[in-house]
Target: Acireductone dioxygenase
Amino acid sequence: MVQAYLHDNDTSQDFRKLHNSGKAVTIEHLEKIGVIYRYCKTEKEVDDLARERNYSNRDVVLIKPDVFPTSASYLDKLKMFYAEHLHEDEEIRYVLEGSGYFDVRDPITNEWIRILLVEHDLIVIPAGLYHRFVVTEANFIKALRLFKDEPKWQALYKPEADNNPILKDYLSSINV
Ligand code: KMT
Ligand code: NI
Model:
């Protein structure tokens, strides 16, 4: 079962650690803010969901130290994924191997919710929801990234993205 909890915001610890504040977050709460979690035993289940939601493009992202020339460049890549951002399209991520954390910023309370994803976990992050990503201390994830027809999946960083109409559309979609 997926684990979600409030992030402890302890910046003295490495960002790949658990950062579990002890306050659990339910799947129902995630759904309220438009985040969908699914366990997909096979890639066929992912394909079905992708078809239903009109996704037609995908790639595989591999994040682990040995695919980077130096440990500094690995860390730079991790920091890039960890910068708070949103997208103008919803994004689907499916873990093929390894594990990682998706942190989503609760638009109601402004708190970071940490979601641990392991093999077979799929997450849908709605357009306009601020998030960031980091691997766990195992330092390894292989994940499918699914994109709609016309990919608009470049990251839009905070605070510039605060004025993006997609953010306002997202907030009104969840009644905030
Ligand atoms: C994103 O949009 O934040 C990402 O794609 C993170 C890497 S996917 C494991
Ligand atoms: Ni993203």
Notes: The domain at 36-101+118-174 is CATH 2.60.120.10 (Jelly Rolls). The mean pLDDT is 95. The two ends are 28 Å apart (CA to CA).
